[in-house]
Amino acid sequence: METRTCTVKVGERTAQYEIGTKFEKIAKDFQKYYEHQIVLAFVEGNRLQELSKELEKDSELEFITTADKIGNDTYRRSMCFLLVKAVHDVGGHQRVERVRIHFSISKGYYCTVEGAVTLDEDFLQRVDARMRELSEQCIKIGKHSIHTTEAVEMFRKHKMYDKERLFEYRRVSKVNIYTINEFEDYYYGYMVPDTGYLKYFSLHLYGNGFVIQFPVPEHPEEVPEFVPRPKLFHVQAESVQWGDLQGIDTVGALNDMVTHQDMREVVLVQEAYQERKIGEIAKQIAECPNVKFVLIAGPSSSGKTTFSHRLSIQLRVNGLTPHPIAVDNYFVDREHTPRDENGNYNFECLEAIDVEKFNQDMTALLNGEKVYLPIFNFKTGQRNYSTVPKQLGRQDILVIEGIHCLNPKLTENLNDANKFKIYISALTQLNIDEHNRIPSTDGRLVRRIVRDARTRGTSARQTIAMWDSVRRGEEKNIFPFQEEADVMFNSSLLYELAVLKPHVEPLLFGVDKHCPEYAEAKRLLKFFDYFVGIGSENVPTNSLLREFIGGGCFFV
Q1: I want to staple 192 with a disulfide (CB 3.0 to 4.6 A). Which of 26, 197, 321, 351 is the partner?
Q2: By residue range, what is the domain housing residue 300?
Q3: Quick count: other Cβ atoms within 10 Å of Cβ 248?
Q4: Is the pTM value of this prediction over 0.85?
Q5: Over the chain, what is the mean pLDDT?
């Protein structure tokens, strides 16, 4: 019988392969042309495939390595599978009740182990050794599809109750199950072909659990140093505890609430919790009589504007008179704005702000002088000035918002005793299940897609296209200064993804399948398949979520 062959094109190179050849074999042949490990393949430009897939016809392939974000995510996901398997091997299946992968910290994930095991340095070293042993064995990471009903029964048998609950709401008939030897689990997203790909990691005891560190795309073969972020960790751990207390720690639990509980009460409880937190921050500020500058910073789509308004109301409750100031009004005139490596205006660097003028004005206000504050005209790119001067009285306080507000260089001439610094971010505490986390960046991206479409007429494709640039700016200008904050505030709401689902899905469906952003849109659409959506009628008008879905009382 004649063997049929296909032509495979990778970049400018072509090669012949038999039909049925695994992409992994082709990837190994082309690996010499890539600096980093190949882990996935794009087929015909828009279909992302695992390397275990087989060649069916003439194809154009684009290989994804661990230096690409998608490839790095695949490496992390696969490493989590290896970690859970190793913990069960070391602790014993009967003694380990649950391994939870919670949230991102220090370029890694914070994890806990529940059951009749003692999580100490000895236990963690044995887990580390087992992971490296499994990696050296290059065990195939298998994948098979079973009926959803069968999957639910399997999860119940393995005491994976989060997954059992999750798949009660899945409308698909089949579920993909991954295996390492006899160990079975479900993961949202693709895997590497075998455990031999998983060489770079480190484990560190931290808090009541431990952190697993991974390489980042910029350095795919290096494990970064573990740098504890105690303030950020505290607010994240507190958010997890709050979710556990409410019984809403996973998507399946949230879906149960949507279908079996009064969501009006669920929404109001989450909103009341945030209001209490904002009130506590305002009280803390009011108890510091020297504070005149409240500095608020956070990454994109954190809800900084609404938070500033709500904080101002609580400051008034505490007897203070707040005045909002946007650092963006101190942009230098457009012709003086620095440009990035691509020749585009770089509005996110500190040099785009007239730091000297900002410090002069703030110092003058602190000294009781009248100051005509700038108003930046974004259409003309020029700075104008208010016709009404501002002067601070004894109870007056400035609420200043901007991405650089935690950077000491922005306020270098102001006395620290006069500053109160707040870091705000949407730190998603809800996870898909115990092993599949929801990145906070996904929550913020979804918020931004919805807001940009509503307020700027920007398509989901455009928002996705610029997201990497936004993230790079955050890594450089915001995240390094997180721990400078006096307090941190989590703006994420446990119920919000259920509300965002009906808003964002039509926008994601509008992304053309032939454009580069389609893979990300498809991933997010698959993600929202897990959720039971709800309407926004029960969301209060002062909710942080209103900044994105509209209908808020702080916006015209």
Answers
A1: 197
A2: 232-549
A3: 23
A4: yes
A5: 94
Q: pLDDT of 328-364, one tens digit each?
A: 999 999 899 998 887 888 888 899 999 999 999 999 9
Q: Which two tokens stand for residue 439?
A: 């990145």
CA–CA separation, 13 vs 391, rounded Å? 68
The CATH number that applies at residue 55 is 3.10.20.30
Burial of residue 5 (number of CB atoms within 10 Å: 0-12, 13-18, 19+): middle
Please indicate, yes or no, if residue 179 is contained in any of the structural domains. yes
Structure tokens belonging to residue 374:
């700038």
> Within 10 A of 136 (CB to CB), how many other CB atoms are there?
11
Task: State pLDDT tens for residues 93-152.
Answer: 899 999 999 999 999 999 999 999 999 999 999 999 999 999 999 999 999 999 999 999
Largest CA distance in the chain: 93
Both 206 and 245 in one domain: the answer is: no
CB 299 within 8 A of CB 474: yes
Do residues 285 and 315 make contact, with C-beta atoms less than 8 angstroms apart? yes
3-state secondary structure labels for all residues of 428-465? CCCECCCCCCCCHHHHHHHHHHHHHHHHCCCCHHHHHH
Query: What whole-number distance in Å separates Cα of residue 143 and Cα of residue 111?
Result: 25
Give me the amino acid identity at 504.
V
36 and 85 fall within a common domain: no
pLDDT tens by residue, 227-246:
999 999 999 999 999 999 99
Instruction: Looking at the structure, tell me whether residues 53 and 81 fall in a common domain.
Output: no
**Contact between 221 and 215 (Cβ < 8 Å):** yes
Residue pair 230/483 in contact by the 8 Å Cβ criterion = yes
Residue 49: strand pairing partners? 41
Whether 554 is in a domain gets the answer no
- Pairing type for strands 419-425 and 293-297 reads parallel
Q: Looking at the predicted structure, is the pLDDT value of residue 438 above 70?
A: yes
pLDDT digits (tens, 9 = 90+) for 543-556: 999 999 999 998 75
More confident residue, 4 or 76: 76
Residue 499 belongs to some domain of the structure: yes
Q: Mean pLDDT over residues 498-516, rounded?
A: 96
Contacts of 328 (CB under 8 A, 6+ apart): 376, 402
Q: Are 438 and 511 in the same domain? A: yes
Distance from C-alpha of 182 to C-alpha of 253, rounded to nearest angstrom: 28
If you search the block for the tokens 């945030």, which residue do you land on?
274
What is the C-alpha to C-alpha distance for residues 423 and 426, in angstroms, rounded to an integer? 10
In 3D, which of 56, 24, 17, 48 has the Cα closest to residue 38? 24
Residue where a domain stops, chosen among 33, 48, 65: 65
Residues 6+ apart with CB under 8 A from 140: 193, 194
CB-CB neighbours of 366 under 10 Å: 15
Q: How many domains, the chain?
A: 3
**If you count them, how many residues does the chain have?**
556
